[in-house]
Amino acid sequence: MTETTQITLLDGGMGRELLRMGAPFQQPEWSALALLEGPDFVRRAHAAFIAAGAEIITTNSYAVVPYHIGDARFAARGQELADLAGRLARQAVTESGKAVRVAGSLPPLFGSYRPDLFNAAQAQDLLKPLIAGLKPHVDFWLAETQSALDEAREVAKGLKGDSKPLWLSFTLQDEHPDPAIPRLRSGETVVEAAKLAHELGAATLLFNCSQPEVMGNAIDVARAELKRLGSSIKVGCYANAFPPRNEEEEANGTLSDIRADLDPKGYLAFAKDWQQRGAEIIGGCCGIGPEHIAALKEKLA
Fold first, then answer.
1. What is the torsional sign of CA 74, 166, 42, 146?
2. Which terminus of the chain has fewer CB atoms gathered within 10 Å of its CB, N or C?
3. Is 163 exposed, middle or buried (0-12, 13-18, 19+ CB in 10 A)?
4. Helix or strand (DSSP H, E) at 237
5. Average pLDDT for residues 172-194, to the nearest whole number?
6. What percent of the chain lies above the pLDDT cut of 70?
7. Within 10 A of 66 (CB to CB), how many other CB atoms are there?
8. Strand partners for 167
9. Cα dist. 244→209, 218, 233 in Å?
10. Using one digit for the tens of pLDDT, what is the confidence trace for 27-47?
11. Is the dihedral of CA 52, 55, 56, 59 positive or negative?
12. What is the pLDDT of residue 32?
């Protein structure tokens, strides 16, 4: 792959964009609060990413889980909120008049960065309302910020029989990474993640919600393993702008600082490297806004 490789652009981080716009935003609801109290902010955020050049936008369903909105609210309104997230994304695409796809976000069910909290016995009960609410509106499924292989396995189980493509996106260890053996936050390897993506018939393997510095090696290792397997799965990433997060911290558990060096120019430098390594899908996660996507659109796509 070379710099001329065609890149498909994802959007950026919804939560921080909502906060920047002045949408209803607080812990623990995070980006779900805008669905509850100011849904038009969500539509406008999607529109901003589309205007910046995103070819895929992701539904604002990441925080529609009990960890963020509570058990009772999720039981009563989980499917309704997932449906709303899907409808708002689809509305933004329709209004844009552009050929933008909608990814249905299937998030970590028991808290981001916490493979130790994952409970397979409860996973299907949480996935069902999310899938049912999103399904009428999305073009494919994006299981994102998956910290462990078992999380992805449960998503595939919940989608069994569904005809929409599945994209898997794993979050990586930020602290003291071994360049030769990049790992998920569970300690499982990127090689194992690539094997699982192939086994599950995923259309795309991504890495997200991790430092941009750790993405390049993961792309290299994943592509090499998929080539060995004879797989045509596409590889890409969308990094966050957080300082390094250790294993005791949770994504979106607190309002984290944003790195000053990851302005659009700084992020673009990383994205150019990912493209040269063979990444075909690039976007941004927490702290990466429309201005970053516009820079990628101008220089990469």
1. positive
2. N
3. exposed
4. strand 234-239
5. 94
6. 95
7. 18
8. 142, 204
9. 10, 16, 29
10. 999 999 999 999 999 999 999
11. positive
12. 98
